[in-house]
Design a protein that fits this description.
homodimer; about 325 residues; alpha/beta; Rossmann fold; N-(1-d-carboxylethyl)-l-norvaline Dehydrogenase, domain 2; 2 domains; eight-stranded mixed beta sheet; 13 helices; about 10% strand; globular; disordered N terminus
Chain lengths: ~325, ~325
């Protein structure tokens, strides 16, 4: 197994929203990218969409000229062609164990012996679909947030048979393309990001179920309160700075409150059909189903503006440190 | 009971970090503010600190000339003087039931018959300290995020005896001063904000306890992933926009994953002394205890810049809608 080579080719297998986002990340950083999708024509359509996204990113001040970036991305006509000479494969197909298992068998048959393979799986560990392939020591999960070219986090999660060198080489690759890798020591369903999102959503559903607050007010509490800190500090740094003596001091002051909250959150039904219908109705009052795509476009604009804001602030922090 | 009168006097009782922040919110919006603190000299010191904060806010482009704002804030020499002609009292003393109960008795003895009283309590419901006062129908919790002049959310939480008109009048006052009120229908420990923060922190502690990830990587997963959405959308809007068919579609796709995550999160010790010491040690490697204040100042600068960013984006959204 060799190190990931600088500017070697990256293969994207599965060219939906996630795969297309990854293509932008690697091509923007100077890597040649090969797109492959089993659905005929899908990779070509993805390339056209990537071109539109690159123009949006340039307008938002997040990337330069789209032309040389797009020029690094080619459509491969077969899996074999996509994987030829690839240093890394980013698998981004549908999130189902049988689909990923079958694809891994196909990849295993043609992949080079030094190529590393990351899966975009958002919750299923690589152990569920790589056990029986010869390349399994070179497989892991590399889970992005959508879209990866705006949210830098990538969760690296090894299967029990993933080689430690695989994790370290993919970490270096991710850092080299400007992403921000985090590591789990072993698999846990949902990884870090969706476990944290999951428990918060669970409590949000409970508050609605118990009639304590509306979905709209819960959303405001996050977007105009908690989320304003979490956009640049994590939960531990937030509480570390929220008591004069740091996190241990905070735990002394507020640990009891949080224990009592935890004790009162058990045994309620959530993610339940009736409750989902109730919140769906509340959401549709604020946003008609027909307006979901335009609101999605709004979300993308705001994410781009926020990404640029964060970049500028980080750069200013760096200058202040010099 | 009358409506909250426009630009009537607001009394701040307890002039620590929270009370001082409230003074800026009300004075910035044109309300005369009286500061009172039982500790001799404390209100005067708060006024000096408020002056410094107003200069910071002006530099960040968030407020205009500090002078007229500061001129609206006066130090009262007694509780009686602070409450004279006040339309609203924002109680911001130490978060302990006995302390708040005693203060409410003192307020009850001198408060005007139309004055409304909001408590900054971050987790204790008003029922725990207002049961035996005559003014209890005019009392509720109005819990801010720190600092309230940067994070607009205010949680309004009625006690069982709070008059509905009290909630509505305080809501209008909060909207008038530019805050963003949300309402609970009844008390629940921790209210909305700290319940949501609490469950996320609980899972964060568990991930560290189980050795699945470091506190640093958990922080990065939020600040460079989840938090980038939650800074301008709440958790329900986030998932509503994260599946083509909206929130019900999302629940169909991912409800099962979140149910499995929930099933795997029970019965671990968290907020436990040994675990706190472990995360404290991880944090102190990144940030020495002596550097907590300077990092707190960094946090305040970043919050100000983010608040300005959000204001500009909201204004651009409004212009686009016109």
């Amino acid at each position: 197994m060799t190190e990931v080579q600088h500017k070697g080719r990256v293969a994207i297998v599965g060219t939906g929203l996630v795969g297309s986002g990854w293509a932008i990340v690697f091509a923007r950083a100077g890597y040649p990218v090969a797109l492959y999708d089993a659905v005929p024509g899908a990779a070509g359509r993805a390339l056209a969409l990537i071109g539109e996204r690159l123009i949006d990113l340039q307008k938002a001040g997040l990337t330069g000229d789209p032309a040389p970036i797009q020029a690094r991305i080619m459509v491969a006509s077969s899996l074999t062609e996509a994987l030829a000479n690839a240093i890394y494969v980013q698998e981004s197909v549908f999130e189902r164990v049988d689909v990923k298992t079958e694809l891994m068998r196909e990849i295993d048959a043609v992949v080079g012996k030094d190529t590393l393979i990351g899966s975009s799986s958002s919750g299923i560990g690589a152990s569920h679909f790589t056990e029986h392939v010869a390349c399994r020591a070179r497989c892991l999960v590399a889970h992005p947030v959508n879209p990866p070219y705006l949210a830098p986090i990538v969760e690296l999660v090894p299967a029990p048979w993933t080689a430690p060198e695989t994790v370290q080489a993919v970490r270096r690759l991710m850092e080299d393309v400007g992403q921000s890798p985090v590591e789990m020591t072993r698999e846990a369903e949902g990884f870090i990001l969706n476990r944290l999102q999951g428990v918060l959503l669970m409590e949000a559903w409970r508050l609605v179920e118990q009639g304590l607050a509306t979905a709209e007010d819960i959303d405001k509490t996050v977007s105009q309160g908690l989320g304003l800190r979490w956009a640049f500090m994590g939960p531990f740094e937030t509480i570390d700075l929220n008591a004069p003596g740091g996190i241990a001091d905070y735990a002394t002051r507020l640990g009891g409150l949080y224990q009592r909250i935890a004790a009162s959150t058990s045994e309620h039904r959530v993610w339940d059909a009736e409750l989902i219908a109730k919140v769906e109705a509340q959401r549709r009052e604020h946003l008609a189903a027909a307006d979901l795509p335009s609101r999605g476009a709004w979300r993308d604009r705001r994410l781009m503006a926020l990404a640029r804001h964060v970049q500028q602030q980080d750069a200013a922090d760096l200058r202040a440190d010099e």
